[in-house]
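Students often ask what a holo structure prediction actually looks like on paper. The answer is less mysterious than it sounds. You provide the chain, you provide the ligand, and the output is a string of discrete structure tokens encoding the 3D arrangement of the protein together with NAP.
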Amino acid sequence: MTQQQRSELEGTVAVVTGASSGIGAAVAKMLARRGAKGAICARRQPRLDALKAEIEAELPKAIVWTHAIDLREPVAIMAMFEAIAEQLGPVDVLINNAGLGRPAPLSERGDAYAGWAEMLDVNVMALSVCTAEAIAQMRPRNASGHIVHVSSMAGYRIPKEGGFYGATKHAVRALTEGLRRELWEQNSPIRVSAVSPGNVKTEFGSVFFSDPEKAEAMYAQGVPLTPEDIATAVEFVLTAPEHVQVHDVLLRPRTQAD
Ligand SMILES: NC(=O)c1ccc[n+]([C@@H]2O[C@H](COP(=O)([O-])OP(=O)(O)OC[C@H]3O[C@@H](n4cnc5c(N)ncnc54)[C@H](OP(=O)(O)O)[C@@H]3O)[C@@H](O)[C@H]2O)c1
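The corresponding structure tokens follow.
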């Protein structure tokens, strides 16, 4: 990578939520290669430690700050953003990646409610709180910050067994456009973008089905996207010239029908 290619993100403070696996981990690596200072968070601290070690082995000068957090706690999110500003400086880039799906049927009482609440809390509430906290650190500096929501093709069509998950990703789509309109009204230099993948081979499937074999069978139906494919899309969004605001990038595996 040339110095020119690194330059847009060099020295920026970039937060990645849900960096302990899958897409978030791949995005964190991409940002480190671009010279960003990374604040990476998720619940599983050992995974974050391993990712930090992997990045530092490849890039000895990389700055990676890890933080264990359950993003269902808005107060914990507020404290984390304060800590990021203290440790690394004010936030320039936020990748709202943490998220999950549960089958959580819409026509059954009981157990499904916990799945609905978890999806709403992580996919919608945490994304919104992180966004507001990041903007609070960008706005006083009139910084050309960037918020990227990792949404889903489920924000455009409703997957089988995924009605509630689809509802949360339709919400992310609405939140992307809602924030864009607000920032435009304020004549803000902050940009907001989404990246909306179809099937990506990560731990998402085993979390969704609570069964790694079922997840493996789903991914074996075609050639799924890789976390690196999504990191490349995020990189494209972040490195577009400042007057360009990529609204959403929709990606499907060529072999995926719906
Ligand atoms: N894989 C796909 O096919 C696919 C398709 C479209 C969109 N997406 C979206 O892509 C994003 C990343 O998912 P992925 O595919 O990379 O799945 P993944 O491998 O399961 O990663 C999900 C990440 O979210 C974190 N997370 C979940 N609940 C959390 C909580 N309560 N607090 C903090 N962190 C939490 C997880 O960390 P901990 O468990 O360590 O907390 C993990 O790092 C999600 O928003 C997902 O909806 C995925």
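Residues 3-251 form a domain with the Rossmann fold fold (CATH 3.40.50.720).
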